[in-house]
Amino acid sequence: MHSIKLPSKPPRSPHPILNLSFRIFFSAAALFSVVTMLLWAFVFTGHTDIDAQVLNPLYWHSHEMVYGYALAVVAGFLLTAVKTWTGVMMPHGYKLLGIFVCWLLARLSWLGFGLGITLIDHSISWLYIAALFDVVFVASMAYVICRAVWQVKQYKQMGILAKLALLTFGNGLCYWGIINADMNTTKIGIYSGFYLIIGLVLTIGRRVVPFFIERGLSIDMETSEPIKLRNSKTQDIASLGFFFAFFISDVFYPNQYPLTVTALGVAVINIVRLIGWYHHGIWQKPLLWSLYIAFLGMCLSFLLYALQPWLGYPHSIAMHGLAISGVGMMTLAMMTRVSLGHTGRSIHQPSKTVNVMYGLMVLVFISRVLLPLVDMSHYLIWIMVAQSAWIACFVLFCISYLPMLARPRPDGLFG
């Protein structure tokens, strides 16, 4: 990891929110998360409908959380991080706006489709529009990343591009399945996208979590030595291998034995990794313990996958555990930390609201994952509590962070 490089001659953009990708995509992801979860809560409680004649409402919810919310955060992070890793300027101003508008139009099209709004005689026409803009969005992101990586010959970053290509393929499967009324293909597309996002989180998290802990703590107060956390290449390869096998097993060849072995393998390897990253000082720094808790939640979720065939609880409990920790908590932790660092604010003095936000996301995990394991009789109540906590969490993020993301850096630099 390299330290953040600040340009001496700043580029120009028409508004601070278009300076770097994290500003507009983190803002949009948070707002979209609130709106989408509110709509899903209304659907869940029977106050409105998703057009179930064409698509199972669960798949609408899943698609937009994976290919809508999660991909927006990925775009905001990657297009900012690649600038840091390579030193090559990423799209800003109107070029960045063009990439963002593709994401936005795809999301609005999915909303029109889900609500059954008629377009050219039937609502499914929205899907063709959404597919076009989704492809252009990811292709644009992949192109600028590839250009930067190629320019400085950091070919080891090409793995990220491969995951983006696979995400586009997975999204294409979703569209193909819905348009052709093939729900099995739709399910494969959604699950593939979800696990590819988790794969990205594991890949990027393995780099940034120890880096952020080192930067956040700097010196061990007991030994007065700089804190250095190491990654093991053997662990990296083993984690990737077990996760890929788990992905194939759960999506394409569901069988209790390989699912248990592979999920257990991912969990154990990453628990060992977490032990190596541990330092008691993280509990004094919410921007650090949130990342640690997110990774721990992912490990626990993989354990739930391993045990699910034998204990008989719903598969969706393990899946939601992985989604809440690996997508919800991890993206929240990354957005709160990256937004401070790249807008020139101190990462050592975050807003006190971050503790509340992280606490609410932990409540989402407890209510949606742990409580149903011990009391299925109140399952619907636990889901509604989780939905409410999720919405409250991101409303608080919007209140605390959107003004920061929309304003210039206090030091006057571009970023």
Q: Can you give the mean pLDDT?
A: 90
CATH evolutionary superfamily: Cytochrome c oxidase-like, subunit I domain
Shape: globular
Succession of helices and strands: HHHHHHHHHHHH
C-alpha termini separation:
19 Å
β-strand percent reads under 5%
Total helices: the number is: 12
CATH topology: Cytochrome C Oxidase, Chain A
Number of domains: 1
Briefly note the structural class of the backbone. mainly alpha
Beta strand count: 0
What is the CATH top level name? Answer: Mainly Alpha
Largest sheet: none
Question: What does this protein look like?
Answer:
With 415 residues, the chain is an all-alpha fold. It has a single domain, classed as Cytochrome c oxidase-like, subunit I domain (Cytochrome C Oxidase, Chain A, Up-down Bundle), CATH 1.20.210.10. It is 73% helix and 0% strand. It has twelve helices and no strands. It has helices at residues 21-44, 57-86, 93-114, 125-152, 158-179, 183-217, 233-251, 256-277, 286-311, 315-342, 353-374, 379-405. α4 runs antiparallel to α5 (158-179), α9 (286-311) packs antiparallel against α10 (315-342) and α10 (315-342) packs antiparallel against α11 (353-374). It is globular. The relative contact order is 0.11. Mean pLDDT is 90; it is low at 1-8.
